[in-house]
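Propose amino acids for all 531 sites.
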């Protein structure tokens, strides 16, 4: 039985004070909107509720396992290969063949699920566009629901945007990038939708609404009989991949489509996941379309995993903010992408549409007409990788300017996030939550261990007093850069409080956005229900 208007047995209609037609056990606490109601249909909500009920205990167990692993690392242990899954790492098995629709992914572009962004990204000339509900989006009720409306219109091929300021209408070209969607990580709740009295799991909301409304049109218009396609973030263990695999199988069964239709690429962006790559692929072998190296979040995870290991205090991360280096940037991008294609990557992310032609040229020159390197690239060095290889200490120095930049970037990103923007232009670059996380955990680690800023000849030790002065001076600089009016209207002071508290907390919070999320949840005024 397919999902649709009559996809579920009928219940007595239950209209509530929300304005939405809700199935039993579901409460919507975000505001009512006619456009949102097209997404929040009774059947779609029932589908999400069934996913939540089926998997919530598995998710809670996986999150408890994360806490136990964190306690082990904080007690001095380090991540490693699991002896219990040696049979997976050394056994003979294969992932399902890659569908033709996504065989060629040599250049991909990413961005939030905003209307104009979706159109421009699909028209960009990239092979894939990853539409993001995660790090590039501030998950306010408005952003999430508008995002689903936008994606439905994009899959239907009807999406357009009228830019009144430029008096320009944006529409899709005849040929567009393949659409992937990245839901939030397992750890994030959706506090505007309650199921059986508790907040829904954010990623099941993101996946559930998108899949429910789009699987049929996507498979016809984009996937050539496969799809939809997803990116899966922030996993730390293969048990989390197993939950996703089961979610996919349940969705396929409920929609009446073939097992293995849904496909997903997993981001390897946490240090523990680097020791679980074979196991993650194994769990998703019927639904996998590969792995992606998430470098920025991986750096964040390295610092977080070793937060109590003073011998692994991270060197300054080069957050690229030097406008004078822009003239050399294109050549640096080419060299970076050349290294990736020669290492066996089948594709790469472009940070900006303007970089796509140069990156495409690098991959074309090295891959020729082949869509990927799965069969042709020999990776002998992978066989000999050791645990020590994956735990190498970062090399480099720490500077006062690094401390200042971490503080400035972290506060400005968080201020934008609190006002509804998750993809933020800072110092000529588009930044998402990963940059702010690096800034936060690095400051926290340097403060905790009172490290010496050894890279600029000053030798000053990082202390609460020094950090307090840096915060004060950088707030003044931010006000000067953005202007008094924007500074006053923005949420810079609130962002500063949250960021400072996170950097100076005795224990490191797992995620900056988890703490900040409560500041963007807006519940509708309570109204009496009526049947």
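Proposal:
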């Amino acid at each position: 039985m397919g999902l649709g208007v009559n996809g579920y047995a009928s219940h007595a209609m239950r209209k509530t004070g929300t304005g939405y037609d809700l199935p039993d056990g579901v409460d919507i606490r975000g505001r009512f909107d006619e456009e949102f109601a097209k997404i929040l249909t009774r059947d779609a909500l029932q589908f999400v509720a069934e996913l939540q009920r089926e998997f919530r205990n598995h998710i809670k167990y996986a999150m408890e396992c994360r806490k136990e692993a964190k306690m082990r690392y904080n007690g001095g242990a380090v991540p490693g290969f699991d002896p219990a899954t040696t049979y997976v790492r050394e056994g003979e098995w294969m992932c399902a063949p890659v569908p033709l629709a996504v065989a060629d992914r040599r250049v991909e572009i990413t961005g939030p699920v905003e209307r104009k962004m979706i159109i421009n990204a699909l028209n960009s000339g990239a092979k894939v566009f990853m539409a993001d509900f995660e790090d590039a989006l501030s998950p306010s009720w408005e952003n999430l629901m508008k995002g689903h409306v936008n994606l439905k219109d994009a899959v239907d091929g009807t999406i357009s945007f009228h830019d009144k300021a430029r008096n320009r209408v944006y529409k899709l070209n005849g040929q567009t990038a393949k659409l992937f969607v990245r839901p939030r990580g397992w750890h994030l709740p959706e506090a505007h939708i309650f199921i059986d009295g508790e907040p829904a799991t954010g990623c099941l909301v993101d996946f559930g609404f998108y899949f429910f409304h789009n699987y049929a049109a996507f498979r016809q218009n984009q996937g050539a009989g496969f799809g939809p396609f997803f990116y899966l973030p922030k996993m730390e263990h293969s048990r989390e991949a197993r939950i996703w695999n089961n979610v996919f199988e349940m969705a396929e069964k409920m929609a009446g489509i073939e097992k293995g239709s849904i496909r997903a690429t997993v981001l390897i962006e946490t240090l523990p996941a680097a020791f679980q790559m074979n196991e993650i692929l194994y769990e998703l072998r019927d639904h996998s379309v590969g792995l992606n190296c998430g470098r920025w979040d991986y750096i964040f995870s390295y610092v977080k995993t070793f937060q109590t290991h003073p011998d692994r205090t991270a060197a300054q991360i080069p957050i690229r903010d030097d406008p004078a280096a822009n003239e050399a940037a294109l050549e640096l991008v080419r060299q970076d992408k050349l290294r990736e294609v020669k290492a066996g990557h089948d594709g790469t992310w472009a940070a900006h549409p303007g970089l796509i032609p140069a990156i495409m040229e690098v991959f074309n020159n090295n891959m020729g007409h082949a869509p990927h390197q799965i069969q042709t690239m020999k990776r002998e060095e992978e066989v000999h990788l050791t645990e020590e290889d994956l735990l190498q200490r970062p090399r480099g120095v720490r500077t006062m300017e690094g401390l200042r930049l971490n503080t400035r970037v972290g506060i400005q990103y968080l201020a934008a996030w609190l006002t509804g923007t998750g993809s933020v232009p800072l110092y000529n670059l588009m930044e998402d939550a990963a940059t702010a996380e690096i800034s936060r955990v690095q400051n926290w680690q340097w403060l905790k261990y009172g490290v010496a800023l050894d890279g600029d000849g000053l030798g000053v030790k990082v202390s609460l007093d020094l950090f307090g002065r840096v915060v004060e001076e950088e707030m003044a600089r931010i006000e000067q850069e953005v202007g008094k009016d924007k500074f006053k209207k923005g949420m810079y002071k609130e962002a500063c409080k949250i960021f400072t508290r996170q950097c100076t907390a005795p224990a490191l919070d797992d995620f900056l956005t988890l703490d900040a999320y409560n500041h963007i949840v807006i519940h509708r005024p309570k109204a009496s229900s009526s049947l």
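The first helix runs from residue 34 to 39. The chain is about 45% helix and 10% strand.
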